[in-house]
């Protein structure tokens, strides 16, 4: 796979975004903005990516959401950009740019069950490098540093414990999550965020870019199908996805953000009308030659 360049996004995104629409960026953190690390605390936000996202956040036509499986406080700490939306625990908790917070309701009895499950996981399956991350209403059992022969024993055992305590199983990168049994995911959270920010006619008013690397991001890609430009970040070509495009790594996500900054910086004052006038002017001045633009539409 050839290295992704800024220009690779021109054909796919330029016509979709246009010259006047606001752009909503919804981005996962781990594996999308920051490379996957052996421990969540080591998944440092690359400075170049942070700087460009910071500049985009200061543009009036850009609305940014970081939507992560981390707790909302943790992902805010890792990203460290003010004035954007943060969604944690796959959207169960959301902090808007004005500081207001949304927390999806969960059954009250789950609080005691979370404590019991945490203790049982720690007592029974936390060995050989495996550990449990407590994210409030969500627990994550990590086994990235665990030898393969041990995983075969403890991962099924962890899944049984999660289900026996009334939680849903979520599979992530070398991890198993215990999620509350509620009908909420990154897809529903994305719709809620966009509706809250832009109103019920959000799909007609804005252009949306979603990028994520995890199976949990597929819920958002499915929910936004036909209404967004979606990217699955994955080095493998055989991973099934609802996304319209694939990106091989976090560096390619950076290239996409660079393209977006360049595209938005070139907008003419006056938006679409000014852009059309400029296009007509260029066509008139170049009447002696003709260019044919071919756009490839994915299946």
UniProtKB/TrEMBL annotation:
Its cofactor is a divalent metal cation. Pfam families: Trehalose_PPase. GO terms for biological process: trehalose biosynthetic process. Pathway: Glycan biosynthesis; trehalose biosynthesis. Keywords: Hydrolase. Residues 268-299 are annotated as: Disordered. Belongs to the trehalose phosphatase family. This is Trehalose 6-phosphate phosphatase.
